[in-house]
Amino acid sequence: MIRRATSEIKIIGINFFIISSAFTVALIVLSAIAGELLHFYPVSFEVMFPFFVTIAVGEWGKTRADSNFDIIAAQSSSLFHWVLLRYVITFGISSLFAVFCMVISSAFRYELPLWELLVIYFPPAFFLSSLCALFGIYYTGEHIATLTCGIVWLIVLLIRSLLRISGVEYIYLFIRYADEQNPVWIWNKIVITVIGIFLWGVIYLKCKRTDAL
Amino acid sequence: MRKMIAIIHYEYKMQFKKLATWGVFLVVTVFTLLDNYPSASNLARLEFLNEPAYFVYRTMSLNGFVLMFGLMFLLAERFPLDNKTGMKLLLMSHALQKKQYILGKLLGGFLYTFSILCIFLAFNTAVYFVVAPFPIPLLECTVPLVKAIIVSAFPVSLFVSLCSVALPGMIDIRLFYLFAAILFGINAAYVGSANAAPFYMITSGDLTRFIWVNPKWSFNDTESILANGAFLMGSGLVFGGLLFLRHRFWRSE
């Protein structure tokens, strides 16, 4: 398993680490210089970092768009394990950058405890990246998964006024960004995580079907 | 010149025929019609939706913004794809000049973006004109549409297409996506007001005030309109121009 993980990290390449580091450093600098007017934590860890993780999963952790997909699908005993491993590595490493950014930026501006930052970050990142992994297993075109998730991300950002409709607050992806005081935000995060797990159920079924062919 | 026109023609035709283009177009059109369709509930929700100029303004600033984001992804792979498939090496082996190749790609991308945006605006305005439950003179729809195409669609297409085609030719495409996501994210977070909008607004900058202005707000800040126009057209041209300065981009001539 460790050998496979090491080989996946080699495939991902050095650019992933350079860009992730640059993005993390940029956010840390922003946390130091941004004034009180900016809701730094929701903007950074609920909106921006989850989309960065989505880009990472869609671009560096690509599955069907990988030129070797047919060989991997034909020779691996379980396609799902390969998809999951690739996802876990890209999601895991970029999330480590996110946690590092949270810890360092908390030194500059302590507004929220670390556990709360993790709860703000994880569900949207998990949902968007899982959606990207789902599109990645369906579409052969490069960048299509990132494009689709990008449009979802942008539309969700634009429709925050829908929070006036009762019930939307439970499924709105960026609840702390749109309405920081909303009392149901923990429930919202649970619902989004559950939807993310459901997406993995769909990925599992799709992989099973491909394995059976 | 003929070679450059051939590249423009190829770029335009190939992008236009791409299924993903029409997929993005369809998704954004559905989003536009859900948001702006002149139904009783939308007319009650949006105070000025009975004005065709407001409809065009909203379609351009809010929904055109999502369309541009989608097209940005599709345009960004033009140079990286040529590198990956070996097409660039093939082109370099012919008597094709660097400026012909770059200009062909950039202008092809621009014409494609501009056409899709114009079709998008015209289609949605036509739907609005046909289904609106009140009579609208044709001119009331046509004038803001033409204004939107000239003052907003043109500079926005120039900015999006030139940046999206040129920058991934110089930097990692993923880094470009990240920069674009940050800029579009900041734009999405902006809420309109009576004051001048920041110059870096893409589709909701002060240029769109030529299409429609909230009657409750008096606006005559020419500087911010110029700043918005200069940002869109200037940065598009600068980023497009940077490729010409990059020596490693093409074989030595």
List the helices and strands and how they pair.
The complex is a heterodimer of chains A (213) and B (253).
Chain A: H1 2-12, H2 14-33, H3 40-59, H4 69-75, H5 79-108, H6 114-138, H7 144-158, H8 175-178, H9 185-212
Helix pairs in contact in A: 1-5, 2-3, 2-5, 3-5, 3-6, 3-7, 5-6, 6-7, 6-9
Chain B: H1 2-17, H2 19-36, H3 40-45, H4 52-76, H5 78-85, H6 87-92, H7 98-131, H8 138-166, H9 173-189, H10 222-245
Number of strands of chain B: 0
The rough form of chain B would be described as: elongated
User: Low-confidence spans of chain B: pLDDT under 50, at least 5 residues?
Assistant: none
The number of distinct helices of chain B, counting runs of at least 4 residues, comes to 10
Binned, the helix content of chain B reads over 70%
Please count the helical segments of chain A.
Answer: 9
Averaging pLDDT over every residue of chain B, what do you get? 91
Distance between the termini of chain B: 18 Å
Number of strands of chain A: 0
State Rg of chain B: 19 Å
Class from helix and strand fractions of chain A: mainly alpha
What is the percent of helical residues of chain A? over 70%
Query: Strand content of the residues of chain B, in percent?
Result: under 5%
Element order of chain B: H for helix, E for strand:
HHHHHHHHHH
Q: What kind of sheet is the major sheet of chain B?
A: none
Series of H and E elements of chain A: HHHHHHHHH
Q: How would you describe this protein?
A:
The complex is a heterodimer of chains A (213) and B (253). Chain A has 213 residues and is mainly alpha-helical. Chain A has one domain (2-212). Chain A has helices spanning 2-12, 14-33, 40-59, 69-75, 79-108, 114-138, 144-158, 175-178, 185-212. Chain A is globular and about 55 Å long. By secondary structure, chain B is an all-alpha fold. Chain B has one domain (2-249). The radius of gyration of chain B is 19 Å and the shape is elongated. Chains A and B meet through helix 2, helix 3 and helix 7 of A and helix 2, helix 4 and helix 9 of B.
